[in-house]
Amino acid sequence: MARREGQALAATTTFYGAGGVLTAALGGEIDHHTAACLRTQIDEEIARRMPQTLILDFSGVGFMDSSGIGLILSRCKRMQAIGGQLRVRGTSPQIDRVLALAGIQVEKQEENNYGSH
Fold first, then answer.
1. With CB atoms 3.0 to 4.6 Å apart as the test, which of 27, 34, 36, 80 could cross-link to 12 if both were Cys?
2. Residue 18 belongs to a domain
3. pLDDT tens for each residue of the chain, 117 residues long
4. What's the rounded Cα separation, in Å, for the pair 96 and 91?
5. What is the count of structural domains for the chain?
6. What's the CATH code of the domain at 38?
7. Which helix (H) or strand (E) holds 53?
8. SS3 at position 99
9. 24: left (phi over 0), alpha (psi -120 to 50) or beta
């Protein structure tokens, strides 16, 4: 969980996966206070597991501001740097609007369709 000046912020990450697929199940709120911590946690898991595919699962995220866009884009670049790919799933209409306002088209990953492009 991300923290700021002793105060708990609502952002969590749970990792699971097998067979070259790593899923980061995100929860809570993603804003400028929590995005850096989430980015660090995800990067540590990428370095440890070296997945072929990273799935960012936003189904537990209730709020995301533009900091979440940076989180997505930087993880996409990170995965490309190691020859992998990024998929996104579980975005809410609010998150879809934030992405659309930024002009970002994200290839969504359906829950049980890990191998599609």
1. 27
2. no
3. 443 444 445 789 999 999 999 999 999 999 999 999 999 999 999 999 999 999 999 999 999 988 999 999 999 999 999 999 999 999 888 888 888 887 777 666 665 444 433
4. 6
5. 1
6. 3.30.750.24
7. strand 53-64
8. helix
9. beta
